[in-house]
Structures are given as structure tokens and as C-alpha cells.
Write a structure and sequence with these properties.
This protein has 195 residues and is α/β, with parallel strands linked by helices. The protein has five helices and seven strands. The chain has helices spanning 11-21, 48-63, 96-106, 171-177, 179-191, and strands spanning 3-6, 27-29, 67-76, 116-126, 132-143, 159-161, 164-165. A hairpin with a 2-residue loop joins strand 6 and strand 7. Helix 4 crosses helix 5 (179-191). The mean pLDDT is 95. The site of inosine 5'-triphosphate has 23 residues, from strand 3.
Length: 195
């Protein structure tokens, strides 16, 4: 089985990707295993897929390992899909609490039926020989009126899924239904055609 580098600088996302990849029997290394880490690239794509490819191509080129990268975000219907690919930088501070506060502010006064949203995870896989593919997972739900729980990361305390708020449910429960759980299941299926 090949060794893959998971190209992310988000420690909580890394933990989630490693947790999902481990039972797939895939050997994973992270930027923390590379001396000096890996470079942070400018995510200047216009779609989740483009940004995932930008990150995976760079990590593969830099390390020589096949690379897996996730580009993800939250798309809120009442905000025409924002923050979308700009989810990590929504409030401009790179801080999850600031992002959540701004989101609540923008949705203030809207009833539940107008607070629908979905998470997207696009996973890109790039091989040193130039082959590459992307897969995508989505998870639909709505935005709460106040944060709940301290599980997960990012917008999890505000996202209500069919299994409850992502901030409250167990990590394994989130993986079963989440955008990343779904994209990683597709990644596993698609990978069979490549190795
Ligand atoms: P890397 O690019 O280094 O992987 P990042 O955090 O900048 O790290 P993204 O550009 O893909 O990653 O931005 C994803 C943002 O979307 C993330 O910072 C969260 O704010 C949000 N997000 C993505 N998946 C999430 C999840 O499962 N739960 C909560 N928020 C999530």
C-alpha cells in the first residue's frame, strides 16, 4: 500500500482525515512528519475542486509522495452560498469563533426554514506521475441560532445535521454523515482504480 501525505495546515482537519483514513488501511503521513513542514500555497481557485487540487499538487511536488488535500466550506442558502470557498477567512481573522459570530449576525432574525445550509468537502488526490482525481461530499442541514457543544471545529457548533448539532455529536457519528466522511468514502472507492 502506498504512503500518502495529507496536505493540510489545519490540525483539527488533519485529525479528522487521519481518523477516517486509518481504517481504510492507508499509510498516512502529515506535514508534521516532513522536516520543515510543507509550504502553505495561495488558494486562488474559484471552486472547492480547484483549491483542493492546488494544495495536493503542491504537496506532491514538494515531497514526492502521492498527496491528498481537502478543500471544504459551508454554503448558506440565505447568503447565496457564502461563505463557501472563503469559509476559513469569512471574518478575516482566521478565527473560528469570529467566523461563527459573523455568521449568526448575518442570519439574525431569520426563521429556521430560511437558515438552510450545506457543508462541502472536495478531496483531491495527486500522484507523482501526474495522474489526479477529485471527489466531493456534501452534508445538508441548517444553522442554529446559538452555538452548541465543543466537538469538531470551524462551524460545527452552529451546524444542525440530521444527527444533531455537529458540535454535540461524537466524532464517529459526524464521520458517518459528514461531507468529509462522504468524500473520503468516494476517495477510497476511486483510489482502487489508481493503485
Ligand atoms: P487547509 O487549507 O490547510 O486544509 P483550512 O482550514 O484553511 O486548512 P479550507 O481552506 O478547506 O481549510 O477551509 C475550510 C474551512 O471551512 C474551515 O476552516 C472551517 O471554517 C470550514 N469547515 C470545513 N469543514 C468543516 C467541518 O467539518 N466542520 C466545521 N467547519 C468546517
Amino acid at each position: 500500500m502506498a504512503t500518502f501525505i495529507v496536505a493540510t495546515h489545519n490540525k483539527k482537519k488533519l485529525a479528522e482525515l487521519q481518523r477516517i483514513l486509518a481504517p481504510m488501511g492507508i499509510d498516512v503521513i502529515s506535514p508534521l512528519d516532513i522536516e520543515g513542514g510543507i509550504a502553505e500555497v495561495e488558494e486562488n481557485g474559484l471552486t472547492f475542486e480547484e483549491n483542493a487540487l492546488i494544495k495536493a499538487r503542491s504537496a506532491c511536488k514538494e515531497t514526492g509522495y502521492p498527496a491528498v488535500a481537502d478543500d471544504s466550506g459551508l454554503c448558506v442558502d440565505a447568503l447565496d452560498g457564502a461563505p463557501g470557498i472563503y469559509s476559513a477567512r469569512f471574518a478575516g481573522t482566521g478565527n473560528d469563533e469570529d467566523n461563527n459570530r459573523l455568521l449568526l449576525e448575518k442570519l439574525k432574525g431569520l426563521p429556521k426554514e430560511q437558515r438552510t445550509a450545506h457543508f462541502v468537502s472536495s478531496i483531491a488526490c495527486v500522484f507523482p506521475d501526474g495522474r489526479e482525481f477529485t471527489v466531493r461530499g456534501e452534508c445538508h442541514g441548517y444553522i442554529a441560532e446559538a452555538p452548541s457543544g465543543n466537538g469538531g471545529f470551524g462551524y460545527d457548533p452552529l451546524f444542525i445535521s440530521e444527527a444533531g448539532c455537529f458540535g454535540d455529536i461524537l466524532a464517529e457519528e459526524k464521520d458517518k454523515i459528514s461531507h468529509r466522511g462522504k468524500s473520503m468514502a468516494l476517495f477510497k472507492e476511486t483510489l482502487k482504480e489508481y493503485i
